Amino acid sequence: MHPALAVIFLTLFSGGGFGLMALTAIVNDFQIDGGLNPLQTMIALLVSLAFVSIGLLSSTAHLANPKNAWRAFTRWRTSWLAREGVFAVAYYPFAMLYLIWVFFTGHPAALPGLVLANMAALIGLITIFCQGMIYAVLRTIRQWNTPLVPANFYLMGLAIGATILVAIRWATGNPAPALLGTAAALLVLSAVFKGIYYFWISRPAGPTIRTATGFNRLNVRILDPGHTFGTFLTEEFGHTLAPASAHRIKALMYTIAYGVPLILLATVAQSNAAILAILAAVLVVGGIGIERWLFFVEAQHVINLYHGRQHC
Amino acid sequence: MSETITVFEDHSKQRIEYSTCYMCACRCGIKVTVENNNIRFIQGNREHPTNRGVLCAKGSAGIMKQNSPAKLHHPLLRKPGTARGAGEFVPISWNEALDMLTKRLQHIRSTDPNRLAFFTGRDQMQALTGLWAQQFGTLNWAAHGGFCSVNMAAGGLYMMPFAFWEFGDPDWDRTKYFMLWGVAEDHASNPIKIALEGLKRRGAKFVAVNPARTGYQAIADEWVAIRPGTDGLLALSMVHVLLKHELFDWDFLIRYTNAPFLVIQHPGHSDDGLFWRTESGEPYAWDMCQKTFVTGTDAGIAPSLLGDYQTPDGKTVKTVFSVLAEKYLDEAYAPERVAETTGVPAETIERLALEMAHVAFEETIEIACEWTDWAGRKHDRFIGRPVSMYAMRGVSAHSNGFQSARAIHLLQILLGTIDCPGGFCAKPPYPKPVPPPIKPAQHSAPNTPLKSSPLGYPTAPEDLVIDEQGRPKRIDKAFSWESPLAIQGLLHMVITNAHNYDPYRIDTLMLFMANMAWNSSMNTAEIQKMLVAKDPEDGEYRIPFIVVSDAFHSEMVNFADLVLPDTTYLERYDTLSMLDRPISETDAVCDSIRHPILEPNRDVRAWQEVLVDLAGRLGFPAFVNAKGEPRYKGYKDFIVYYEKEPGIGFLSGWRGEKGDQHLRGAPNPKQWEAYIEHKSFFQYHLPMSLRYFRSANKDYLEFAVEAGYIPEAKPILIELYSEPLQKFRLAGLGLYDGPQPKDPVDRERLATYFDPLPIWYEPLEQQRVDAEEYPFFAVNQRPMMMYHSWDSQNAWLRQIIAQNYLYMNRERGEQMGIKDQSWVWVESHNGKIRVQVKLIEGCQHNTVWTWNAIGKQSGAWGLTPDAPEATRGFLMNHLISELLPDKQGERRLTNSDPITGQAAWYDLRVRVYPAAPGEEGVWPTFPTIKPLPEEPKQPDRLRYHTHNPVNLKS
Amino acid sequence: MRLGLVIDLDTCVGCHACAVACKEWNTSGTTGALTDYQPYGAKPSGVWFNRIRHYEIGDYPHNKTINFPMSCMHCENAECVTVCPTGASYKRAEDGIVLVDQSKCMGCNYCSWACPYGARELDRASGTMKKCTLCIDRIYDMEIPEEERQPACVLTCPAHARMFGDFDDPESPVSRAVRERGGYQLMPELNYNPSNHYLPPRVHAPIDTERMRQKGLRAVKDWIHRAVER
Ligand SMILES: Nc1nc2c(c(=O)[nH]1)N[C@H]1C(S)=C(S)[C@@H](COP(=O)(O)OP(=O)(O)OC[C@H]3O[C@@H](n4cnc5c(=O)[nH]c(N)nc54)[C@H](O)[C@@H]3O)O[C@H]1N2
Ligand SMILES: Nc1nc2c(c(=O)[nH]1)N[C@H]1C(S)=C(S)[C@@H](COP(=O)(O)OP(=O)(O)OC[C@H]3O[C@@H](n4cnc5c(=O)[nH]c(N)nc54)[C@H](O)[C@@H]3O)O[C@H]1N2
Ligand code: SF4
Ligand code: SF4
Ligand code: SF4
Ligand code: SF4
Ligand code: SF4
Ligand SMILES: [Mo]
Asked: Taxonomically, which superkingdom (chain C) (predicted)?
């Protein structure tokens, strides 16, 4: 698949934003590490809102005919994309009201505020699920057509959220060991799940050039795709990654998204260096950005079979 | 059906016109919907005999041809003071252009008319251009046939009353076994596709003989991956199998061929190999019942097919068939012996021959129908042997193509499948006598029309167009010792010979519709140099003046001194005439027209109009009245009133003053209107009794005389054994009572190749090129969706193919360490090119091939200079020389069939090796051609439509 | 009604006529114009509803070339419709034709992701998704002569490798062809249940050459002469 920045940003940032919202709510619900103070809550909310907005705006930039974007909510009964749109938009009032609440009352953990926070968190989590399902329902793309996709989206969104919260706590001079542990655990879990995912997609399965053409018993090879240069289909779906580069980039991704941040978090736990916590958050976002890029380029749409791929 | 009727488009704003496609030379009937003076839709005309409603990709893309940015806009003159080929032109008016040209031509015509060389491409109007040349008085006229497929025409017409190419077709609806030799697309583009589907639906077997498996071969029931250039041998080996099993049509051979005629066996003498003839010149046969010699052409005799006899004056004579059987029963033709050369397993050769025999003799079809043979005998049925074949350039584009075509015909003749139900049938105006009774004009004189057409069919050395010293009289050396039966000229030699003043210097080269500076020349780079070469003595161009008629900005336009811009096919009147290349079907006489559907929006004129105009200005006798004034108001008028003989004109439908006579009749002033009213074509269905065995079918022969196709209603025999060829062979052997060549090389060629029976020999270039050094055969194919160089300007078609590759057998490529899609060098004795390779299955092991004419010179055809056609596409032509490799002590010979002068495009041998790392992109590249003065800028996006869409709501 | 196409792989010669006729008709059709990019430039491309691909099956010398036209299959389980968030994509209940309402599409490409057959192409100029309309503006245009109320691609195909009709009618030519020739759907495992079917290449029965093989095999001198009247 074409790794369009717009769609990468959409799931990366809005996923992170929703994860951050969810963790903010949980931390304040259960007063983990003493809960977040108003300032921290507001920073978290602003970051979450910013992330979600970056995601949504870039996704509209991806539309070829944005003037019809408003119609995207109409088919929520059948379309996960429509549902995602509906929930993503529904997130805003709750998140903003919570922000206003905290700003004016200074009581992030007060009940009305928590109700708003939990609503926003819930909607965010549902949105992540919708986002995952946008991909997971596609039978045309084997690498996406799995529950591992929403699971990964969750784990990564939450991991991003957690590391950002950690950064906020340390940056505001308010260490939070339990949160740090949660972040580390989420990172490890997310890395493990992604590993499972990579293992899962590495096994050949699904349609092949033979089932695609119906010549099941013989070697089938493409002679000519019928057009010399690219078409919408080759531009949208024709991206591939050589296995060698895929391995290299995955190693890089693991290092940036998980390896270094975990080390940094461990260092933060000892040294309390806020800058390292911020760096960890930035790296996680960047690393998961790479993961998201891989998620697209490695996805092989079955149309590629018709362009000569033996299997997807 | 929907309840509510949606109005999708406003048909009242549209008009429908019927005309004839010219995106290629197949000439399908089209139905054109025009809206706001733009084309809404071009579809096939359902009633049209050629395409019956279907249309190919090119035809449907006619819109984008009409919209091409490469269209010429004005007559252009090379800018005074600039060099030819520099691409600097100034627009001039038609008056200026034609005045200038008239003056020049007048001078040539009144001094030495041969100093005008007028050559045309695939024009479909040779009846007009030929007449024009004849009236001008120049011998130097021909169309594209010499570099195209003259071997098919000549191979057929010197043996049979018709031929492959546009002269005959399988009886598609009845044949049960069809063998296709060396055809990728051909002129019968849609008809073949329609027919193949019909064949397959009826369960007929379709065998394709071709080194490549694409297109038609893709759907063949059996693919025979032949080594190029060996078809003749394959066919003769099948002949061997048939003879060995005594599987031939005894009756057919006796009745319809010269198989029983007696050939004089007198080696070393001037009558050796000629027919033993009666006083009046008729060949003898031996009557088995009367046990005596009889006139072989008489009715009622029972000629012996086999045997040798002594004539009363002591000569040994042998029947043609005995000579033939002895020749091909030789073990040299046994399948096991030819398997290696042809690349076809012996088992396959034998099986195919036997399969055909099975279908011919065990699956015979009969059509109950009373018909009368040439001797007046009535028959109650036609018996058909439903095996048919078709062959084209895979066979013809080799220097052994003439004989190979004959070998394939021989196979058909033995099986008795000629012009019979299910067999290979003639298309009117064929059958014609073998060969057609027209001799090429031999003399020209100032201000005098030639006595006959510049082209014709020599039957003996006396008919050659040579001077007393035996030197060629034509610039292309057609009808000289080098190419005696060059019945369609040698367009591919014109520029080289004119440049070399060989045999003489010409003044003006006038080209119509032939891209000789690019894809239709061998050795393109050298030819471009010749086009701009100057004489060191007088500083003039070696070819002093070049006139080009083209509709588009082709590479050739760039080398013109004067460009005469033509209309497009949707903007002009045109005839597809019975006097020309027929569009007839095997069962119907057909001709058709084009008429203007769109107004040209540029200062262009139809070449037809220009020719008629020039003919009037130059005072050609056939074009002026007694007072010397132009006789015709223009082309349209000319077509109506010109009569070749009384009652016979260019168009055969709706003749007579009232428009109610067909085939023959007085001119009808409203003939064009009648054609337009009848959807632009005329069709006369032959009654069943006139449909088969026509060269011996009395009623048909009489019909053909009446229609002006043949001079007399005499039966026409198939000439299995060709006496004319034997005469040329005798001349080569120094035994002929008449002209003989002096040059030993000519003698040797005549003696070797002019075998009166089909033979196979290794193609000439290959005889001189080391097969170890150049291990691959290199050939081309026509892509179905591209017509030569024309279609790269087509925004839709070029999306399908904008770059060609060198296709190579995958296994072979892998063995050689060549990677799919890598760049490789391809080298021949003549040069080298760098191209991108594709490894495929459908390619014979020893062959590489590519699509023809995709490569373009940068800047031509309205494309941006970085168009892939110029940066990645390539021409094989750079590797092909128009001359055979040099041989010590020998003059340079044309790289053509030694009999017909057919360009031997596919004799090429090459070696292939990987390009060095970093060596990418096509090589050689050529300088970018400058845009013409009025050329529009290429748009970034195109959104062609004729009305706003009606959106359907969800 | 369930309208769709049958493609005969036994006779398709891969000429691209159907693709070009489709382009030609539809560029002025209900979802026209179909934009072309760099039409005369370095990388010519554009919007097409029908594309012909070419494959080789088997290894040399037992290889066969297969020409393979593909356009929208008008699937029964048209996931492209299900996923569309705007409702621009829809499948008509009355005849099963899948269309895109150009006035509603926002150009998100999602439907093209859901289509296994590459039938949908985004037009960058209009910003909308486009696809084969089954020539709805031909087959239902009552002003077009009845025998021409067929998709442009079907009308033009020189090898008559395309058939149009109603798969719900068991006696329609398309249903019969599928039944008699073993017509199949592409990638059935995805369960889109496409309407379009493909007819596999026919296998020609061997021709019996035994009788022929036994004939003759005498020397020429032993051939038995036959008196045939000329
Ligand atoms: N679409 C399209 N149609 C055209 C044209 C075009 O440019 N485009 N050009 C028109 C013209 S001018 C002509 S002359 C005709 C020509 O029409 P074709 O006769 O079809 O000409 P080619 O494309 O040269 O095809 C030659 C075929 O012979 C095969 N071949 C090569 N060498 C051999 C051999 O030694 N033996 C055998 N058995 N096969 C061999 C090649 O693989 C190829 O398939 O087409 C006409 N029709
Ligand atoms: N390597 C290789 N070379 C080959 C062949 C091959 O198989 N291999 N095939 C050979 C054969 S068979 C042929 S026939 C030739 C074909 O070669 P050409 O006859 O040169 O064919 P085209 O490229 O079609 O060029 C014809 C010219 O006619 C112009 N033209 C088009 N329409 C009109 C019109 O309406 N009016 C006028 N006045 N001009 C028009 C075009 O713009 C073009 O410049 O190529 C030969 N060259
Ligand atoms: S074969 Fe195609 S291009 Fe040629 S005349 Fe027919 S429709 Fe036109
Ligand atoms: S082929 Fe693709 S676009 Fe057409 S109905 Fe099926 S899924 Fe939808
Ligand atoms: S591109 Fe248009 S039709 Fe396709 S899913 Fe998006 S809105 Fe629907
Ligand atoms: S049915 Fe119409 S729109 Fe669909 S592929 Fe055929 S021509 Fe194109
Ligand atoms: S028009 Fe017919 S033969 Fe040509 S590619 Fe299309 S389906 Fe195949
Ligand atoms: Mo040709």
From this structure: Bacteria
The answer as to whether B404 is a domain residue is yes
| Residue-level pLDDT at B378 | 97
Q: In the structure encoding, which two tokens stand for residue A233, read together?
A: 């289909």
Are A221 and C116 an interchain contact pair (Cβ–Cβ within 8 Å)?
Answer: no
| CATH number of residue A248's parent domain | 1.20.1630.10
CATH number of the domain that residue B288 is part of = 3.40.228.10
C108: closest chain A residue by CA: A63
Three-state secondary structure readout of A5-27: HHHHHHHHHHHHHHHHHHHHHHH
Cis status, amide bond into B924, omega within 30 of 0: yes
The partner residue sitting opposite C65, judged by closest CB among A218, A223, A233, is: A223
- B470 belongs to a structural domain: no
Asked if the Cβ–Cβ distance from C59 to A134 is below 8 Å, we say: no
How far, in Å, CA of B388 to CA of A189, rounded?
Answer: 73
Cβ-defined contact of B952 to C101 (cutoff 8 Å): yes
The Cα angle at residue C180 between residues C176 and C183, in degrees rounded to 5: 85
Compute, in angstroms, the gap from residue B586 CA to the centroid of ligand 1: 22
CB contact under 8 A, B218 and C216: no
Q: What is the pLDDT of residue B2?
A: 45
Q: Report the atom number in ligand 7 closest to the C-alpha of C162.
A: 7
The domain limits of chain C are: 3-229
Least distant ligand from the CA of B789: 2
Ligand 2, atom nearest to B549 Cα:
38
What is the DSSP code string of B620-671? -GGGB-TTSSBS-SSHHHHHHH--SBTTB-S--SSBSTTS-B-SS-S--TTH
> So what's the pLDDT on residue B944?
98
Say if C88 is an interface residue toward chain B (CB within 8 Å).
Answer: yes
CA atoms within 13 A on the CB side of C104: 19
Rounded Cα distance, A288 and B54, in Å: 55
* Count of structural domains, chain B: 1
- The answer, yes or no, to whether any atom of ligand 3 lies below 6 A from the CB of B319, is no
Regarding the beta carbon of C74 and ligand 4, being less than 6 Å apart is answered yes
CATH topology of domain C3-229: Alpha-Beta Plaits (3.30.70)
Best residue in B197, B284, B781 to probe C by mutation, most C CBs within 10 Å? B197
Provide residues with CB under 6 Å of ligand 7: C 12-18, 52, 67, 69, 157, 159, 161-162
For the stretch B261-301, pLDDT in tens is 999 999 999 999 999 999 999 999 999 999 999 999 999 99
CB atoms under 10 Å from CB of A32, counted, come to 18
Domain membership of residue A311 (yes or no) is: no
Q: What residue numbers bound the domain in which B328 lies?
A: 158-429+718-722
Total number of domains constituting chain A: 1
Query: Radius of gyration of chain C from Cα atoms?
Result: 23
A75 to chain C: which residues are within 8 Å by CB? 84-87
In a domain? residue B331: yes
Give B606-633 pLDDT, tens digit per residue. 999 999 999 999 999 999 999 999 999 9
pLDDT in tens, B13-45: 999 999 999 999 999 999 999 999 999 999 999
Range of the domain at A231: 3-305
Does ligand 6 come within 6 angstroms of the Cβ of C6?
A: no
- The pTM assigned to this predicted structure is 0.97
Q: Is the complex ipTM higher than 0.90? A: yes
**Cβ of C134 below 6 Å from ligand 4:** no
- Cβ–Cβ gap A302/C198 under 8 Å: no
Q: Chain C, 57-96: which have a CB under 8 Å from a chain A CB?
A: 57-59, 65-66, 68, 70, 79, 82-88
Question: CA A150 to CA A144: how far, in whole Å?
Answer: 9
Domain-located, residue A11: yes
